[in-house]
Write a structure and sequence with these properties.
Elements: H1 8-21, H2 27-32, H3 35-43, H4 50-62, H5 69-86, H6 93-99, H7 102-119, H8 122-126, H9 132-146, H10 151-177, H11 181-189, H12 191-203, E1 213-215, E2 221-223, H13 229-248, H14 250-266, H15 272-284, H16 291-311, H17 315-330, H18 333-336, H19 340-353, H20 361-373, H21 377-381, H22 391-398
Helix pairs in contact: 1-4, 3-4, 4-5, 4-7, 7-9, 7-10, 9-10, 9-12, 10-11, 10-13, 12-13, 12-14, 13-14, 14-15, 14-16, 15-17, 16-17, 17-20, 19-20
InterPro entries: ARM-like, ARM-type_fold, CRM1_repeat, Exp1_repeat_2, XPO1/5, XPO1_repeat_3
GO molecular function: nuclear export signal receptor activity
Protein name: Exportin-1 (Trinotate prediction)
Length: 400
């Protein structure tokens, strides 16, 4: 049917059936027959078959068959070349998705699946010599796909990046601990990809469970507790990815976040969404920097956020900024414990937030105080230098 038929509907249904049975077909039949050539040479180039064909090829790339790695690399390379001719990775994939038909949107989802499934075991696919340009071009397609404003595509991409950055951390550690020119060349070659990925993941950072104040899809600032397991898992994948990216290059991560925060401070209009993504990103990388770098980084972040909270007008704007301050401080007890004056400033700000009437601010301030007080209990119970009372005594003294 796939070689002779001219019935479009029949071919499409045959491809769908083949895709469904692919995991159960013997490996030798897949790789030793002409099915791969038919998919690549006859069907992939035809727009009416491209979605189903690419789905079949994605399933083939998942087949665990080390003896057929060269064939899988050939499939990957041919699909890559085809994509570069019809949809270069430099193109705005989000624009293409937004303006595309349902079929075109589905194609972009399948494309992200193909590259993520092809590159999930990149060591096995490209070792021992690593054809870096071919590997990196596929990664750029995943970077462009990650920028698409579609939750299903983002799930595919962020799960890939979580695994990929974890693997690169291992590669980097291996190259530093013993002479390994090939691995060192691989890690160095990935630098531009990882730099762009830091920016992209921060831009699309998802809301953590602790944050109950956010901007909904209508642009309204609302209070909502997160009980959706998928959303929580999505945040965890973003957090793990950013943590890996921070460990790989903490200086660059610090620079990107601080520059973007400065841009928000100086922007003519306030963007709650942009600030949220930055605040959530800052909170997610706790412990990934050295103690000294983390201290310098957090002092600048919190000073900017506190200043922004004082400057901005409107209860909803202040509530968004307050939620970011509270989320960030509760993630960094390691920073607060040795710096009592900053700890005191933060807790006094939380008491101030506890008097706020905007829905959700009081709840979050109380939760933040509890999360900080537990690891910092000795600092709060002890009379500190130049203080007359402990913080707890002072707090009880000023309570109405």
């Amino acid at each position: 049917i796939l070689t002779e038929s001219t019935d479009i509907l029949l071919i499409v249904e045959t491809l769908k059936t083949l895709n469904g049975f692919m995991p159960y077909i013997p490996h030798n039949f897949i790789f030793d027959s002409n099915i791969i050539d038919i998919l690549l040479e006859r069907l992939l180039k035809e727009p009416m078959f491209s979605n189903e064909t690419l789905s079949c090829l994605s399933e083939i790339m998942l087949v665990d068959s080390p003896s057929h790695t060269k064939i899988k690399l050939s499939i990957y390379s041919k699909v890559l070349e085809k994509m570069k001719s019809i949809l270069p990775y430099e193109f705005d994939f989000n624009l293409a998705f937004t303006n595309g038909t349902e079929v075109q949107q589905s194609f972009l989802r399948i494309l992200s699946l193909f590259f993520s499934q092809s590159l999930r075991a990149y060591h096995e696919l490209f070792a021992p010599n690593y054809d870096l340009p071919v590997l990196i071009d596929g990664l750029w397609y995943l970077i462009s796909s990650t920028n698409i404003d579609d939750i299903e595509i983002f799930k595919i991409c962020i799960e890939f990046w979580k695994s990929f950055t974890s693997s690169v951390r291992i590669d980097k550690s291996r190259s530093e601990n013993r002479p390994d020119p090939t691995t060192r060349r691989l890690v160095e070659g990935l630098t531009p990809i990882l730099s762009r990925l830091r920016f992209v993941v921060i831009t699309h950072m998802k809301r953590p469970e602790e944050v109950i104040i956010y901007v909904d899809e209508h642009g309204e600032v609302v209070r909502q507790f997160m009980r959706d397991t998928d959303s929580i898992n999505l945040y965890i994948a973003c957090k793990d990815t950013l943590t890996n990216l921070t460990v790989l290059n903490p200086e660059e991560m610090k620079t990107i976040i601080l520059e973007r925060l400065d841009n928000e401070m100086n922007a003519p209009t306030f963007s709650p969404g942009n600030l949220n993504c930055l605040g959530w990103a800052v909170g997610s990388i706790s412990g990934a920097m050295s103690v000294e770098m983390e201290r310098e980084f957090l002092v600048r972040v919190l000073k900017n956020l506190l200043s922004l909270c004082d400057e901005k007008k409107g209860k909803s704007n202040k509530a968004i900024i307050a939620s970011n301050i509270m989320y960030v401080v509760q993630q960094y007890p390691r920073f607060l414990k040795p710096y009592y004056r900053f700890l005191k400033t933060v807790l006094n700000k939380l008491f101030e937030f506890m008097t706020e009437t905007f829905e959700g601010v009081q709840d979050m301030a109380t939760d933040s105080f509890l999360k900080i007080a537990k690891p910092c209990k000795y600092q709060l119970a002890k009379v500190q230098h130049d203080e007359v009372r402990s913080f707890i005594e002072e707090a009880l003294y000023i309570l109405p």
